Amino acid sequence: MKMFSKLPLRILGLVVVLLATSWSINAQEAARLRLDGLDKLATNSAHKLSFDLNGRLLQLAIRALSSGDANDPKMVKIREAVQGLKGIYARSFEFEADNAYAAADLEDVRTQLRSGTWERLAGIQSKKDGQNIEVFTMFEGDRIGGLTVLATDTRHVSVVNIVGMIDLEKLMTLQGNFGIPNVNITLPIKIKTKP
């Protein structure tokens, strides 16, 4: 008889776990941007980088990093940064002439980033260099579940979309690795408050 009295609690627990898993998977799917609309930029570009690292390939990369030199501080930071990631997707285009692409070419990505799930974290503009760097985050509860960097200048377009649980401080160590460009974004200094 006791077995039957615990059955509803077990079923309820299973339902909660399934719903949480489903919500987490849906949040991860929402964090992944559709970047195929950028493919039209390839026709005018001199160089194109297309990078999709997810699922088994990402796990293989994490295992490869784990088997590296355990004492190398850079490798330790990279391993820690990629631990909660589910995918890294990048598209980068370089053009031989200034203004070889139109702002409308990025509208599909911008439309996705304007959805209610994404929040703009930072924007950096340089009129001198024509650079524009925007950083967007997607929260999953109180943690970052997705990050997108959109970087453009007169001859370059780069979009990096990172899906998974992200620690921003650790993520900054990935710049220059996995197709993630160096965008020279530094986080604000943490101010300690007195208790």
Keywords for this structure?
195 residues, six-stranded antiparallel sheet, 30% strand
Question: Which secondary structure elements does this structure contain, and how are they paired or packed?
Answer:
Blueprint: H1 2-31, E1 47-54, H2 55-66, H3 73-82, E2 85-94, H4 107-113, E3 118-126, E4 131-140, E5 143-153, E6 156-166, H5 168-171
Antiparallel strand pairs: 1-2, 2-6, 3-4, 4-5, 5-6
Series of H and E elements: HEHHEHEEEEH
Radius of gyration: 20 Å
Shape: globular
Q: β content, as a range?
A: 25-35%
Number of strands: 6
- The stretches of 5 or more residues where confidence is low (pLDDT under 50) are 1-25, 185-195
Distance between the termini: 53 Å
Helix content: 25-40%
Structural class given helices, strands, pairing? Answer: alpha+beta
Major beta-sheet overview:
6 strands, antiparallel
Order of strands, main sheet, comes to: 1-2-6-5-4-3
The count of helical stretches stands at 5
Mean pLDDT: 74
How would you explain this protein's 3D organization?
By secondary structure, the chain is α+β, with helices and mostly antiparallel strands. It is built from five helices and six strands; from the N terminus they run H-E-H-H-E-H-E-E-E-E-H. A hairpin with a 2-residue loop joins strand 5 and strand 6. The chain is globular, with a radius of gyration of 20 Å.
Q: Short description, anyone?
A:
With 195 residues, the chain is an alpha+beta fold. It contains five helices and six strands, in the order αβααβαββββα.
